[in-house]
UniProtKB/TrEMBL annotation:
Sequence ranges assigned to domain Glycosyltransferase subfamily 4-like N-terminal in this UniProt record: 26-196
Pfam families the record matches: Glyco_transf_4, Glycos_transf_1
Gene Ontology MF annotations: glycosyltransferase activity
Provenance organism: Eutreptiella gymnastica
Keywords for this protein: Glycosyltransferase, Membrane, Transferase, Transmembrane, Transmembrane helix
Residue ranges of every copy of the Glycosyl transferase family domain listed in the record: 222-374
Membrane-crossing segments per the record: 113-133, 408-431
Name the record gives this protein: Glycosyltransferase subfamily 4-like N-terminal domain-containing protein
Start and end residues of each stretch annotated as Disordered: 451-470
Amino acid sequence: IFFRFRRASVAMRVAVYSHSFPPSIDGVCRRMSSLVYELLVGGHEVLILTLESELSGLDLHGLPMPKYVTLESGFPASYPMKRIANPSITNSYRIASALREFNPEVLHCTVDALTLLFAAIGLALGIPVAGSIHTDVDKILRSLRAAEWAIKVGWALEAADSRLLDACATTSNSYKEELEHRWCKIDHVVLTAVNTDVFNPNCVDAEERRAIRSRLTFGHPDAFLVLYVGRLSLEKSIEVLFDMLLVPGMENVYLAIAGDGPIAKDLAAMHSEANRVYCRPGFLSHADLAKLYAASDAHVSASVFETLGNTVLEAQAAGAPVIVPYAQGFKDTVKHESDGFLFEAGSPHSLSQYVAKLQANPTLHNEMGEAGRQKVQGERTAEAVACDYVQWYDRTIKRRADRMTTPLKLVGLLMIAWPLVFGFMITLRVYDWLVDCQQKAMGIIDALSDDREPKDAGVPRNPKSPVKAA
């Protein structure tokens, strides 16, 4: 163990597990993909544990693809838009076999249903395990209208995970405070890198910038263009952005949407000049995203689920001001009225007021864009972030050495935690079964109704509320 600690500051063998890697599109995917790349650039050996069958979308900028192992996963009926890892015997065998062969000095995992497996296997094989919490499970459960007891079980599982791991981190100070309120033990806030060589204001020239703006505004390049980038799902509250376009005074504002996700088809149906919405869902490379940021007048989001907000950092690096809710994560990445605006969460009128400020003051737009760019260049370089992770891994290895003096305490925690995770998984399976039964019953009722009603008796969807309809 002491030998491992001494080697950690030079070059390391790091196993990295993430529940989100390309072709998934979300902040966790971007963050963990960047981490893998920077570790490889720094000369570290990497083993990837993933839920994806292949990692063809992982852009390593010419570096050879490291070995990766695919784990079992599925899409629960209660939350079909998100892939969930399966804490199965098969996954236990795959993880243990891969780690035994690779023999990493540290394992870094994103915290999810497999965390207890990683903690137990790491204890058995003598591998220090560091975990990072990226997803706000509490708000997801509340958005699904889960029972309060189920939410508290989720809290207990996160708290158990954070204590069984040798180290546990999250992505922002505001979310760290929230997790500590939920009984978690957090010892570090990780930095998030932005490739400023890709995301910068000069990634597009004046002619191409005007062409992009003309395409996204249906031939009105001088209109005010706001850009949303991210996962297209219900919890992102994209309906607030649509409602903002309907506020008086926003008649010359166009919304461009870039990303993909469960409600992509419903949002794509809103694509039209009449709605002032450009939406062609799909995966975009970082280079293409950078051009969209640089060509837009502002980056907007209405999500209150963010634990950091990667897209904010990308937009700032590209010189675009940001307008996002005053909520966890965003509070750490945006300095109000300096490099962006923080509007009242859920309020399209509050959002429209800040859009109007930027629209009426080009000087303010340029100042905010430059302030964001300078901040990212000083604090969020890829090299600084990789160094931060390696130092955290060093501390994780040392902490494992200290904790091994009380192995019975770790074993006791595992014995308490395992019933919790299996109870939670059984509850989730039962809930999925009930949801499936309900969907089948509704299908039968709809079929019977179709037989009794005329074919044209359907109720048309309100075109102004596609997300709510979805």
